[in-house]
Amino acid sequence: MKILVLGGTVFLSKAVTAEAVRRGHEVLCGARGTSGTVPDGARLIPIDRDQPGAYDQIADERFDAVIDVSKYSVDWVREALQAFGDTTPHWTFVSSISVYADHATNELLPALEDDPDAEFTAERYGGVKVASENAVNDAVRGREFIVRAGLITGPDDPSDRFGYWPARMSRGGRVVVPDSPDLGFQHIDVRDLAQWIVFAAEQRVTGTYDSTGPVMPFQMAIGEIAGATAPAGTQLVPVSEDVLKQLEINPWAGPRSLPLWLPKAWAGMVGRDASTALANGLKPRPVAETALDSLEYERGLGLDRPRKAGLSEQEEQEILTAVS
Fold first, then answer.
1. Is the domain of 164 the same as that of 302?
2. Model's pTM, two decimal places?
3. Staple partner for 107: which of 88, 102, 135, 269, CB 3.0–4.6 Å?
4. Does the residue 194 lie in any domain?
5. How far apart are the C-alpha atoms of 41 and 60, rounded to whole Å?
6. Is residue 176 part of a domain?
7. Running along the chain, 324 residues long, what does each successive block of 10 average in pLDDT?
8. Which of these, 39, 59, 63, 60, lies nearest to 47 by C-alpha position?
9. SS3 breakdown of the chain: % helix, strand, coil, rounded to 5?
10. Residues 89, 164 share a domain
11. Of 200, 102, 191, which Cα lies nearest the Cα of 146?
12. CB 144 within 8 A of CB 137
């Protein structure tokens, strides 16, 4: 197959490219190339999607599949569809579970158009994804594969979220964990999602899927990460949601956070039904395997580096002092 990946230099799009090359496909990556290199065996086509005529140099090319990971721009999605939608047999668009306004009813957020002056929020991100999905359905209905991704984990993750836990567990000692016995956990290793996306292109799988792994208790996931990466004698210290809020510990991501912890009001994000994706070829690996590989990646970056997400040693000690 001849595949066009719109991206190919960072995380998921890079993993998709590497997987497609591994499986013997010819892969062109359309990207600016400023975020990194494409995997060996792929060809980078310098494309700036903010510029007019972005696809002029490959306008005459024909592809068996296009894989678009556009995050923030409906215009980018439409322009790619205009350039290649009529001639491409299979079209993948990587969306997000952020499209849901209500996880209980599966109601979607209102579709939002691009607005460079608008403040970026989770709702705006989800609304742009809804509009992008609509554009894909309008242009290539019957040939579309829409991947509503949840938490993506594994090596090369630029968010520092999942990687915080194996990195922290590897240092041992007393480890602060959220005391949230009813909280679920869902993730998909980037390599497993990439394999599924390439498989779907090969087999012409179509439709819209919540693309994540099965739900498991958050505390079980933390236990599996600890079992794989923590030295003997490590002590997990559960801390209540009330205490974490009082100490202004942020949920999910960002500075001064306990990554992947969600307050009860947001818990629906980690309760998606992934059974349809699993029945159509998505094959998640064990959490412990992702944890071990993520730890190796973290060590390569440096366990003591400044992080985008998580607690510093001082912040963690502040919590431990408060609950002692």
1. yes
2. 0.97
3. 102
4. no
5. 22
6. yes
7. 97 98 98 93 96 95 97 95 98 97 95 92 94 98 98 97 98 97 96 98 98 97 98 97 96 96 86 96 98 98 96 97 94
8. 59
9. 40, 20, 40
10. no
11. 200
12. yes
